């Protein structure tokens, strides 16, 4: 996951770098266009200034020429009074022709300047449009390459994520199988330990039964010895005094208390077969018309509540007893 994150961060950095490069290229294009426009305006102003200077010089030259011609005309008027009118007409005609020629020259010059300005503007517009088109094409190609790279990178990342998910899924399946196997081994170990514990408990119960039987045998032997001593003492007293000594009648030895009987029953039912256990539990339920729970039966027979529950459920499924699902008690 760390490698994928690094690659994604690297891809993001590349996209950001490409975007910054596109922004820088656009800014450069804008700056270049601004420089071109500034150069065009400066050239236009310089040409206008040059034209204005040329026109002023031509006007001054005409004025000087007119002054010179006027002076010459005055001198000619003093010298040649008769040819004044003709010279004046010729001069006016020459001035008109010159004015026309100069007007035509200025008009042609202005026309050429306008044509040159228009041609220069068109050429500049064409160059600007071509440059903008080339820039747009370059930017579009960069964007397409970026999109293609991003798509390819996305596909690679998707494939890597799929492979990672497959690996995680396989590892999860392996862990699940290992967990199931461990649970199975744990269950088997638990059953073995429970069986060993039951066997040890049965052996301990048997040992305790033997010990209790030995204690009872010793108690009975001591009771018989005491009874015999009391009888001998009674005979001796009667022979010495000639009177009968009241003697307490000794009852028969009592049976083992109910707790011992239950203990013996517990040890015995643990060693019984499955059918005998079912029969014993069926008898216990049959003696309880008010109903009895699995915990109570387990306390009476010495089995776990889970074992008693399985046995009682088996009896209920076979129809030998009835189970109340609300109180979870068993009835005959």
Distance N terminus to C terminus? 65 Å
**Class by alpha and beta content:** mainly alpha
Strand tally is: 3
Return Rg in Å.
Answer: 66 Å
Strand order of the largest sheet: 1-3-2
Which regions contain 5 or more consecutive residues with pLDDT less than 50?
244-265
In sequence order, what are the helices and strands, one letter per element?
A: HHHHEHHEE
Number of helices: 6
How would you characterize the largest beta sheet? 3 strands, antiparallel
- Average per-residue pLDDT, rounded, comes to 78
How would you sum up this structure, described in words?
4% of the residues are buried. It is built from 6 helices and 3 strands; from the N terminus they run H-H-H-H-E-H-H-E-E. It has a 3-stranded antiparallel sheet with strand order 1-3-2. By secondary structure, the chain is an all-alpha fold. The chain is rod-shaped and about 225 Å long.
Secondary-structure blueprint:
Blueprint: H1 2-79, H2 84-241, H3 258-271, H4 274-286, E1 292-293, H5 294-301, H6 305-317, E2 322-324, E3 329-331
Antiparallel strand pairs: 1-3, 2-3
Helix pairs in contact: 1-2, 2-3, 4-6, 5-6
At a glance:
The chain has 332 residues and is mainly alpha-helical.
Q: What characteristics describe this protein?
A:
332 residues; mainly alpha; three-stranded antiparallel sheet; 6 helices; 86% helix; 2% strand; rod-shaped
